[in-house]
Amino acid sequence: MMSGLFIGGASGEMARANRAEAAGERAARTAAEVRTQTEAITCDVEKLFMITEALWTILKEQHGYSDDDLIGKIQEIDLRDGKLDGKVAKQNNPACPQCKRALIGKHPVCLYCGTEVTRGPFER
After folding, report:
1. pTM for this one?
2. 76 vs 31, 51, 72, 120, CA distance in Å?
3. How many CA atoms lie within 13 A of 62 on its CB side?
4. Domain that holds residue 75
């Protein structure tokens, strides 16, 4: 009888150990996916920095803008929400041109009346 209790207890421990191992493997896979996504985002940000610097260089060389012009425009955009905090102001959802209800999310049509909606390139 003691050996049966021992075997039952051991199998329960093995089952718990297997579940813990599977959970650890899932966590490791998730961590690897997050690292991959982070590396991709970092690469995208670096590309955007390079593109931005190239565009600014063109504007300075071909149109005579100065760094002070750029800084002034950055501060103007930053202050749209009344705070100089280095963040773009959150935009409220624009209204549908037809029914005037607030547009929801990034849908290409108004969810209320079906009107096709075009969004500007900088709308979030």
Report:
1. 0.57
2. 39, 22, 6, 19
3. 6
4. 2-81
User: Do 77 and 100 share a domain, yes or no?
Assistant: no
Rounded CA-CA distance 63/90 in Å is 31
In a shared domain, residues 74 and 115:
no
Q: How many residues does the chain have?
A: 124
Q: Are residues 70 and 33 in the same domain?
A: yes
Torsion angle defined by CA atoms of residues 31, 36, 40 and 45, in that order, rounded to the nearest 10 degrees: 40
**Residue 48 resides in a domain:** yes
Q: Which tokens hold the place of 99?
A: 């029914």
Among the listed residues 84, 64, 59, 65, the one whose alpha carbon sits nearest the alpha carbon of residue 74: 84
Which residue pairs from 118-122 have beta carbons closer than 8 angstroms and sit at least 24 positions apart in sequence? Answer: 119/94
List, for residues 1-40, the tens digit of each pLDDT value: 455 555 656 777 888 989 999 999 999 999 999 999 999 9
